[in-house]
Amino acid sequence: MEMAIDTPSPAPSAASPAPSGGGGGETRAVESVRLEHQLVRVPLEVLRATARTNHRLAEKEIAAVLSSASSVSAPDAVDHLTSLVSRLHGLKRKMEEGARAEELQVQRCRARLDRLAAASAGDDGGWEDIRLKRILVDYMLRMSYYDTATKLAETSGIQDLVDIDVFLDAKRVIDSLQNKEIAPALAWCAENKSRLKKSKSKLEFLLRLQEFVELVRAKNFLPAIAYGRKYLAPWGCTHMKELQRVTASLVFRSNTNCVPYKVLFEQNQWDSLVDQFKQEFYKLYGMTVEPLLNIYLQAGLTALKTPFCFEGNCPKEDPLSLAGFRKLAEPLPFSKQHHSKLVCHITKELMDTENPPLVLPNGYVYSTKALDEMAKKNGGKITCPRTGAVYNYTELVKAYIS
């Protein structure tokens, strides 16, 4: 017996105001900001980071020039001042590059705000089409299909609405970690030190631990001890247990069979670092941890997921009959069932008082309409499509829905 769940929508409140003509567009805009806040936040975060970098660079260079100018001596004053002028020209070029980078992010912020404002313009199909393409580009970037994502963005003209350059920066760090190189990831941590510290990130600590382990693996014990004193000791007040375990690897070495220390030398430690970096990267830019495509699909699957979907006779029309959708729906709750409806396995039509269910002697239930047509074609005989058993129409029993 197949079940199709019908969850009634709540009746509109009498006090609720009638929707205005632009209400649908406003709702889309609000929904985009709520579910896809990264649309606006990512370029804003990049703009803030670029502005901070430019400001620090200008302060550092100007302070150095002023300090150097104050110590100019008469014999080599001309050469010294020429060097300072050359340095200031270099600073000017860097500041112009920084200004262009800031303008690019401002342009992207403006384009995305304009996109949200266009939600109420009335072009529903075009607006939804662009949103779908943005979601697909986001998914491809997270799954490392960078070339495909770039091609889709270019052909759709949505370069200002997606974050390809941000993901490409992350790709360089991810590739280095997959190649067992720590330096690019540490450089990324240094660039974002204040924000990572504010979010209480452990990424830099974990990278330092892995670098220590690699020194032990290579049997560079004295350099490992010196490295631990310089880079790991400052973390002792907050991560003492981890430090004690990793320093014990000096005794157990990489060929140990002692599980707590053996795992420190396994390949999946690098995979864990990649996952940890991705988590910090998403958090830093205000991105969702799950791809937007998964979030939207799970929202729909939540309404469709019922215990029946995971039985062997789940109809192929049900999206949850596919393994990929089932995996995506695993962590989701079952949809809330207020009322049940019976759907005929043969006709896929609703069974109700106008088309009541009939029960075969083997316990299977089908609609009256389907079994009447079968009996007319087969001289009063009914064949169960599931088991192949044959019965007389007179053996059927009418069932009543309560």
Describe the structure.
It is a single chain. The protein has 402 residues and is mainly alpha-helical. 59% of the residues lie in helices and 6% in strands. The chain contains 17 helices and eight strands. It has helices spanning 23-35, 38-70, 77-117, 124-142, 146-156, 164-178, 183-191, 193-198, 203-217, 221-232, 240-247, 249-252, 259-262, 268-284, 292-304, 323-329, 368-377, and strands spanning 2-6, 339-343, 350-351, 357-359, 365-367, 381-383, 390-392, 397-398. A three-stranded antiparallel beta sheet has the order 1-2-3, with no helix packed on it. A three-stranded antiparallel beta sheet has the order 5-4-8. α4 runs antiparallel to α5. The two termini are 15 Å apart. Mean pLDDT is 85; it is low at 1-22.
How can the largest sheet be summarized?
3 strands, antiparallel
**Total of DSSP H or I helical runs spanning 4+ residues:** 17
Q: What fraction, in percent, of the residue positions are helical? A: 55-70%
Oligomer: single chain
Structural class: mainly alpha
What is the overall pLDDT average?
Answer: 85
- What is the number of E strands? 8
H/E element sequence: EHHHHHHHHHHHHHHHHEEEEHEEE
**Using only CA atoms, what is the Rg?**
32 Å
Beta-strand portion reads: 5-15%
Please give the alpha-carbon distance between the first and last residues. Answer: 15 Å
What global shape is seen? elongated
Uncertain segments of ≥5 residues (pLDDT<50)?
1-22
Strand order of the largest sheet: 1-2-3
